[in-house]
Write a structure and sequence with these properties.
The protein has a 12-stranded mixed beta sheet, with no helix packed on it. It has a 7-stranded antiparallel beta sheet with strand order 50-53-62-55-56-57-58, with no helix packed on it. The termini are far apart. A hairpin with an 8-residue loop joins strand 55 and strand 56. It is built from 3 helices and 70 strands. By secondary structure, it is mainly beta. It has 6 domains: 191 residues, no CATH class; 167 residues, Lamin Tail domain (Immunoglobulin-like), CATH 2.60.40; 96 residues, Sandwich (Immunoglobulin-like); 152 residues, Lamin Tail domain (Immunoglobulin-like, Sandwich); 179 residues, Jelly Rolls; 84 residues, Immunoglobulin-like, CATH 2.60.40.3080.
Length: 975
Amino acid sequence: MRHFSKLFFFLLAFTLAGSANAQLSAGDIAFVSFDSDTPDAFSFLALTTIPSGTVIKFTDNGWQASGSFRANEGIWAVEFTSEVACGTEIMVCLAKGATDLQANPVGVITTSGSLALSASGDQILAYQGDEATPSFVAAINFEGSSWQADATSAATSALPSGLTDGMTAVAVAEIDNAQYSCITESGTKGDLLMAINDAANWLGSDNTLQAPAGCLFNLSDCSSGPGTGGGGDCAELFISEYVEGSGFEKYIEIYNPTPNPVDLAMYELRLYSNGAASPSTISNLGQGGVLQSGAVAVFKNSQATADGVVIGAVNHNGDDAFELFNLATQSTADIFGVLGNDPGSAWTAPGYSTANMTLRRIASVKQGVTVNPTGTGPSAFTTLNTEWEAFAINAIDGLGFQIGDCVADPACLITSVVVNPTSGCNDDNTFSQDDDYFLADVTVTFNNPPGSGDLELYGPNGFITKKSVSSISGGQVVFSNVELPANALPVMVTASFNAETCSADGFAPAVYPCSLPNCTPVINELDYNNPGTDDREFVELYNPCSQAINLADYSVIFVNGSNGQIYGDFQLPSVMLGPGEFFVICGNGATTPNCDLDVSPNTNLIQNGDPDAVALLYVQAIADAVSYEGSTTGFTEGSGDGLSDPATPLRGIGRYVDGVDTGRNNADFSVQCITPGEPNVNSSEYCGLPDDFMVSNIGCNGFPNDAGFDDYSGTFYVSSSCAHLFGSQDQGTLVSKETCGDAEISARIINVNPSIGYAGITMQESDAPGARKMSIIRYSNGSKYVEYRPSPNAPYQLFWLPAYTIYADYVRITRLGDYFFAAVSFDGFRWMTIYQQYMGGMPNCLKSGMVVSSYLSGVSTQGTFENVVITGSGGTAPRPVAPATINSDEPVSFNVFPNPVVDELSVAIGNAQVEKATISILGLDGRELYRGVHNINGSTVNLQLSGLQMTAGMYILTVNTGEEVWTKRFVKANP
C-alpha cells in the first residue's frame, strides 16, 4: 500500500531521536553518583531506552558564560555496544568502561585529553554532538551549592545551555564523593528528575567512595526510546527530489523512510562538480534539525525563491553529481549521478535530463544508490529513468513532501512543549503559599496526531486541562492562562494524546510564591563593595512593623544577575526582632560592627553587580528584594539602574529613613555612610569622622577629597585628588583638630595608595596653602622626610630620614615651645628622635592632624592611619629657659667648620652631658655616607672627607647621644 505524508521541514524540532547514534534530550539521563577520589568514576540513570550505537560524551571542561567550553581538560566518549533499558543505572569508569550494576559491559570509552575529577570541586557535563555546538543531556557540579556565573577555573562552570538547575542538572556542595540518597526510587520521569536533581537529596564523604548509587529505580512512564534503523529497504535516508531550474532555482530534498527520527547533523551533502573525483563542496545538514519518520527536509541555493534551508552544496548544474553521506556509519547513503564522471552538459535518458528539469523519486523506491555507477558518459546514470519521475523546469510544487511505500502510518509525535509565563505570582487571596500560582501559555507542537481523543496537559499537581483532537487544526495548539504552582521550583508540564502513546515534556523556570504576612522585615542597608579584599561586606535587615518578628521563617539569598542563579542562601536563626531593631548578616564578624550572623566566605561575600541582587524570603516568597547596578529579572522592585556602591571606605547603600519602602530600589536606596546595626544617616560625606576634627581642602581648586573614621577598627581614611607641588604653596587634604601650647601628634601610617602618593602628619599654623608648618611625610615604600616651612609663603625645606627608618611606620611630632621634634618608631613604644627644628613665632594654637596629597591632580591618593593620638595642653607654650641644651640649627656650643669644607671637617661640641656620641654624615636623599663613635665632651672631632667620595653640594651632619640628636648642615666644596 502507498501512503502519503506531507511534513514540512520547518515544523521539525528537537525530540527523542534515534538512528545508529540516537539523539537524546535534556533529562533523558540523570547523574546519581560520582567519585573524585581515585579511581574517578560516576553513574547515571537512563530515563529512556538508549539504543546500541548511541554516543554520549562526558567532560570535566566547564561551560563558559559566553556559550562555549573551557579548554584543556578531558572527554570520555561512551559508545553503547548494547541497548540500555530505561530505568537502568550505568556505572562509568576508565578501567571497566560502561557497565550495568551486575558488571555487564554495555559500552566502551574513547578518551580525549585528561578527564580527572578534582577532590576540591569539579563538574561533569553530559552531551552529544561536536564540542562547538553541543546538545546537553545532563550535568552535575560539586564545586559549591550552586552553578558558578562562569567557568573561570578548572573547578568551575556555568549552567550548560538548555539545562535547568533542579530538573536536568544539579549542583551539590563541595565534597570528594557523593551519591543520590534513593529517597525517591519510583514514579514518573518528572518525579525522579526533580528528586535526583535536588541537592538536598544527596549524601557524600571525603573518605569513602560512593559510586554507584544502587537505588531500586522503577519508572512508571519509561519511554521505549529511539530505535535503530537496521539495514536494507527503508533503513536509510535518500534524495527524494532534485530541482535544476533556471537561474538559481536549485533544490535538493532529503527523505526519511525509516520508522524513527534522524538527526540531520549526522549527514553531509557532497557536491562533485564537473566530473570531479572528490567533493568540491561539502555541507553538513544539521541546520535541518531532526528529521521525523516519513518527513522531508528541503535544502536550497541561497538565491532560490521557495522555502528551504540554505547550504553551500546546492549550487549544481546538470553535469554535477551528489553524494549523501552518513557520518555515523561513515558510509554512502545515496548517490545522484555518477561520482568522478563528467557527462558533458547532463546525464540523460529518453524523456529525462539532469539539466533544466525537476526529478522526483518514485514511491516504490525504498533506499538510495550506495554504490557508484561504473559507466561513463550521459547514459551512465542508469537509474535515472527507473527510479525517478521527470517534471518541467522550475516545477517546485512537489517540494516539502514525499509519496513513498516505506512509512505505513507515521507515528504521532509531539516535537516540543514550550511554557511561557504570562504573569507573576498570584497569592489567591490567602496567606498560605500552598495555593500560590502563576499563569502561562503552553504551546504544543506535534506531527501526525491521532484521529480521536484529547490532547491533555499535566503538571506537578496532576491533570490541568485538555482539548479535543477534533477541535485542533494544524500542527500546533496553545493552551492559554494555564495555572501552574509558584513554589520556587522549576515546573514540568507534560502534553499527551490519550488515544496514543504520544507525550513530551516542557519546562518553566521557577517562580517564587508570594503569600506574605501583613508586615515583614526589609533589607535596610547593604555594603557589597569594599576597597581591597572585600572583607567587610554585610546586609542589614530592619523591622518596620509594630510587632516582633521571628526571623526563623526567613532566609537571605544572593542572586547572580547574569543568569538568575542563587550563589548564596542563608537561613536566619530563631531570633525575635523587635520593632525598630536591626539584624546584620556579614562575611567577617571580626571586621564588621554589630554583626549578628557571620556567614562564609569571609571575603567577596556579595557580588559586585552589573547587575546582581539580594532578596529576603519568607519561607519561599520574596518579602523584599534589592537589585543594584541594573535590574535583575525577578528580583527587582521598580528599577536598579544607577544604584551602585562605590569601592570607597565606610560607604554602602541604604534607606533613609530606616524601613521606608516605596517599591523602587534606585529611589529607596542611596549611597550613605555605613551604620551596620544602627540607624542610617542621610549623608555620604566624611563618614564617622569625630566632631572635633576638621577637613580642609588646601589649595585644591575644586578637586574632590574625602575623609572618614572607622571607630570599630580605630582607622582614619584620608584621600586627596590634588597634587603636592614642591614650593611655597601646599596642595592636599588636611584632617586636623586644634592644639594649643605644648602638643603632640602620633600615628601609624599603614598604607599609602597608589605607590607614588604622599601621606603624613603635620602641625601647622592654619589651613592656608602657605602656612608655616612641621610635617613628616611618607611614601608608599616607607621612605620618609621632614618637611617644614619656617616663614609664611616661603618654600618649604626637606630633611630625608635615614634609610633604616623605612620600616618604622609610627611617626610623631612633638611641640615644646617654639621647638618641634620629629621621631619615628617601629612599635609605637620605643621612639627615636630623628630631627628637630626651631620655628620662632609660631602661634600658640595650631592645626594638628593628618595630611594626604596626590602625585597628579585629578588622581586620588588615599592614606590609612591607625593609633592616631593628638594631645595639647591648651595653655600658652612656654619658652625654654636654656635654649643651648635643646637641639636646633643654632645651638650655643655645637659648630662645624670650615663651612664650606674641602677635605677636613671639624666638629666642636661643648657642655655635652655624655662622653661619647655617634656622628653621621647624610646626603639630602637620606643616604648615609659616614658613621663613627667619637669622644665629644669638650673635644673637637676632625673628620677626613677625602675618602668618602662626596661630590660638591649640601650635606647634613648628625650627632646622636642616644637621648638627643643634633643636626647641622654644611657644604662640601671641590678642591
